[in-house]
Amino acid sequence: MRILQINSHYNQGGAARIVACIHRQLSARGQESHVAYGRGQKGEEGTYRFNTVPEVLLSAACSRFLGKNGWYNRAATRRLLSFMERVEPDVIHLHALHGYYLNFPMLFDYINSREIPCVWTFHDCHAFTGNCGYFFDCEKWKTGCGSCPYLKNYPASQWFDRTGVMWRQKRELFTQGTKKVIVTPSLWLTEQAKQSCFGKYPCITIHNGIDTKQVFYPRDRRACREKYGFGREEKLILGIAVGYRDERKGAKYIIQLAKNLGSGAKVILIGWNRENDCLLVGSDGKKIADNIVTIPNTSDADMLAEYYSMADVFALPSLAENYATVTLESMACGTPVAAFQTGGIVEQVDEETGWLVERGNATALKETIRLACQDKALLREKGMRSRKKAEECFSQEKMLRAYRQLYEEVLNKE
């Protein structure tokens, strides 16, 4: 059985690390596995990046100025289809298709005309909305998009609202054929998928899994702090800054958190892009907070695990989220999570393992973290429970068993 996964990135970001995990585990078990991805760093054996940087930039510009996302990248998609002809996959496993790297009509005309069995994991809501990754309080996606209240959100359009047209065209393209199964990592998103045009297909939940044995496990806290130059007694709050230009990720809340905590704690932000530097400066041109430490993006999982392990609390200020991989990684490293109560986060974090506060309530988030950092025993207890839950519920072995069984089922579906 030959499996081909398609995603925007490989091993960069939460969904991309899930793709890499599935690929590596399948390959290690002797399964023929391939990954085709559109952008980002060079992959590894069995992976193929089919876009060039100029093609991605041109597609992003067209999408933002003309208002349609997923209707460009013809040359790159032709390369993808040629690759698929060579691989001849038995099952195609789709992941995130937005990201300025694909031509939707070309890809789905190919899949639909050949009736290739397809597993599609939704990592957000983009597949069934006109264009939004998350719909927040808008429910137009149920009856027909248009006059989008979140037009400037990623994937953004600067002027033209094509969401109504895209909603209709995506429904037509995406829901042809019978050999499709929709997977989401959270019960929350599974329920949304069932209410969408994809309700005609089986919609199931397979929780994301991570390597809780060899990579994401508690490291020596003192040694990690010494390695990266932090004091034994410093209060350290960790955040992942990937995607902070998107307001959904809540950058302003964690920056405000740093300001409010002041000298009482340091806030470490990994995955920082220099384009985000403007977020750290107020309207008066002065730095908002002096206790923020920014770290560039990294694909070094061991480094990530060390930072998770040495932090007192992991802060997740996202205003909308599906089933965040970073939450699982932090918990597996024994660091409790403080997050806004939204989406699938409530299925990951509970009062035994961390803290959930009202979405957008910056004061509650600050007070929760401030008080937590004053109670070492509480941090230790929640950290131990987080680790236990990660081992029991979030292992990559459990996830892979579910996907392998699903591949067999969809391949044998009449």
What string, H for helix and E for strand, traces the elements in order?
EHEEHHEHEHEHEHEHEEHEHEHEHHH
Tally the helices.
14
The secondary structure category is alpha/beta
The overall pLDDT average reads: 93
Low-confidence sequence ranges: none
Oligomer: single chain
Instruction: Tell how many strands the DSSP assignment holds.
Output: 13
Query: Main sheet?
Result: 7 strands, parallel
Strand order of the largest sheet: 3-2-1-4-5-6-7
Shape: globular
N-end to C-end Cα span: 17 Å
Radius of gyration: 21 Å
Estimated share of beta-strand residues: 5-15%
Describe, in plain words, how this protein is organized in 3D.
The two termini are about 15 Å apart. Helix 4 (about 105-115) links the parallel strand 4 and strand 5 (about 120). Helix 7 (about 220-230) packs across helix 9 (about 300-310) and helix 8 (about 250-260) packs across helix 12. By secondary structure, the chain is an alpha/beta fold. The protein has a seven-stranded parallel beta sheet with strand order 3-2-1-4-5-6-7, with helices on both faces. It has 14 helices and 13 strands. It has helices at about 15-30, 55-65, 75-85, 105-115, 165-175, 185-195, 220-230, 250-260, 300-310, 325-330, 345-350, 360-375, 375-395, 395-410, and strands at about 1-5, 30-35, 45-50, 90-95, 120, 180-185, 205, 235-240, 265-270, 290-295, 315, 335-340, 355.
